[in-house]
Amino acid sequence: MAEEIINRVANSKLRTFDLEEIYPEGERVVFDIKDWLFQGLILKEKDFREHVKQHNWAQYNNCFVAVTCSADAIIPSWAFMLVVSEMSSFAQKTVVGNLELLETVIYQELLNFIDWNEFVDKPVIIKGCSNKPIPESAYAMLIQKLQPLAKSIMFGEACSTVPLYKNKK
Fold first, then answer.
1. pLDDT-based confidence at 133, cuts 50/70/90?
2. 53 three-class SS
3. What is this structure's pTM?
């Protein structure tokens, strides 16, 4: 008779944290205001406000949006605020910046709502490989949350990890 295969990793105290598991679904969009600038360089308030008024904001329903200006122009803060105020009724999250900043803000908020009790005095593996655009800053935020709690922290997969931290209690 064949011996029963026992998954020792599943039966251990080891906890795995996979940032990909908390990744919220929804389209990521870059909204660039450069096309609303006069000659691609100058923001004319009246024209800009007309673009904002005429724009179809519903197309950003349930999206995560990074509002930016790729033109080398000086954009007043109120212009970004005006765009975000219109978009916020539709988008799940809006930031002024690039997609990496958007993902960082998303993860910052998500990590604040985790129940960290299951990681107290446990060895933890932060899963490394991901198919989603997880910013490096999310890993940094995660280790800051885990370090005061975990017995040890490793990075990678259960079969191949890189040690990062060991509690010296």
1. confident
2. helix
3. 0.83
